[in-house]
């Protein structure tokens, strides 16, 4: 495949001919793409991602992007002099942190990705539309409840993570209005939502992508990250897993660290009606195109 910085550069006559059966397979189907903070990488990589998202839309798919931004939030918190505290790797989001997180996620990152899509799609009139879960009642959330075992008593204790939420209800009408419009729009969603009492909460972007993919009945959910996919004990890529095998990988310690919540998200999404979830390296040029339109794909596919 070409590594040109324009997504349309991938689609030569030869590669399009090879990809045609796969393009027909996904015609008019929704693909939810989680674009992670680490996978965003450098600006040139992000622009290549935007061009590929435009190409998906031009080929008849309905891409919906959910983005993260943990590293960017950390950088802005440091600039603002706001100190972060963590519990078991999870950031405690107090009022000051929530203010910065919303500014970075719903503001800087969200609008930048949407504008890159609009720039990449200018000739074809494909436009990125930036949203957050607060728009049109898209995401109603509830406060996250987490427990931690006390090392001395070994008793599970509640941990207050502050303004961190989980999706309670997804109303995808605004997304459906955009993807099925006569014009070519690509929704870009920031993982921020509102509780029933109007409080703003930060949400894990993987969790948002899974909940949204389930609500939309997506054909595929792509979790773009900074690793090749799920690796076995020998460090080799596992190309396909059932949700039972994914559970076993967690239980047996094959999946560790940040891969565990990604597999849990994939399992939940498949159980919610998504046909399959793929965990893949978003830094790889044209990773989405290779995954969707070639025989062997580019990551680990999890399905029933």
Description of the structure:
The N terminus is likely disordered. It is built from ten helices and 16 strands. With 304 residues, it is α/β, with parallel strands linked by helices. It has an eight-stranded mixed β-sheet with strand order 5-10-2-1-13-15-16-14, sandwiched between helices. It has a four-stranded mixed β-sheet with strand order 6-9-12-11. The chain has a two-stranded antiparallel sheet with strand order 3-4. The radius of gyration is 19 Å and the shape is globular. It starts with 12 loop residues before the first helix and ends with a strand. The longest helix is centred in the middle third of the chain and has 26 residues.
Quick recap:
An eight-stranded mixed beta sheet has the order 5-10-2-1-13-15-16-14, sandwiched between helices. It is α/β, with parallel strands linked by helices and 304 residues long. It is built from ten helices and 16 strands.
Rounded to the nearest angstrom, the radius of gyration is: 19 Å
Decide which structural class fits the backbone: alpha/beta
Indicate the mean pLDDT. Answer: 90
Question: What is the 3D form?
Answer: globular
- Indicate the percent of residues in helices: 25-40%
The SSE string, one letter per element, is HEHHEHEEHEEEEEHEEEHEEHHEHE
Number of separate helices: 10
Strand order of the largest sheet: 5-10-2-1-13-15-16-14
Low-confidence stretches: 1-8
Q: Which range does the strand content fall in? A: 25-35%
Major sheet summary line? 8 strands, mixed
DSSP strand count: 16
What is the first-to-last residue Cα distance? 30 Å
């Amino acid at each position: 495949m070409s590594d040109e910085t324009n997504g349309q550069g991938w689609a030569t006559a030869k590669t399009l001919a090879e990809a045609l059966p796969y393009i027909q397979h996904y015609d008019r189907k929704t693909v939810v793409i989680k674009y992670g903070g680490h996978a965003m990488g450098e600006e040139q990589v992000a622009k290549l991602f935007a061009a590929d998202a435009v190409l998906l839309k031009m080929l008849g798919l309905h891409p919906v992007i959910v983005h993260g931004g943990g590293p960017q939030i950390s950088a802005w918190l440091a600039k603002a002099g706001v100190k972060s505290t963590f519990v078991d790797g999870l950031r405690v989001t107090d009022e000051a942190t929530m203010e910065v997180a919303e500014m970075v996620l719903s503001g800087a990152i969200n609008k930048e990705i949407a504008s890159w899509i609009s720039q990449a799609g200018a000739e074809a009139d494909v436009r990125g539309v930036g949203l957050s879960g607060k728009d049109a009642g898209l995401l109603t959330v509830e406060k996250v409840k987490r427990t931690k075992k006390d090392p001395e008593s070994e008793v599970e204790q509640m941990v207050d993570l502050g303004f961190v939420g989980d999706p309670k209800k997804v109303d995808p009408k605004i997304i459906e209005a955009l993807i099925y419009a006569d014009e070519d729009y690509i929704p870009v969603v920031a993982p921020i939502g509102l509780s029933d009492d109007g409080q703003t909460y930060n949400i894990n972007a993987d969790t948002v992508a899974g909940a949204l993919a389930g609500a939309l009945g997506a054909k595929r959910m792509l979790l773009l990250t900074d690793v090749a996919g799920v690796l076995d004990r020998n460090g080799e890529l596992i190309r396909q897993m059932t949700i039972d095998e994914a559970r076993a990988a967690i239980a047996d310690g094959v999946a560790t660290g940040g891969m565990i919540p990604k597999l849990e998200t994939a399992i939940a999404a498949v159980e919610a009606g998504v046909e399959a979830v793929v965990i893949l390296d978003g830094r790889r040029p044209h990773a989405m195109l290779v995954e969707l339109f070639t025989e062997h794909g580019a990551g680990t596919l999890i399905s029933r």
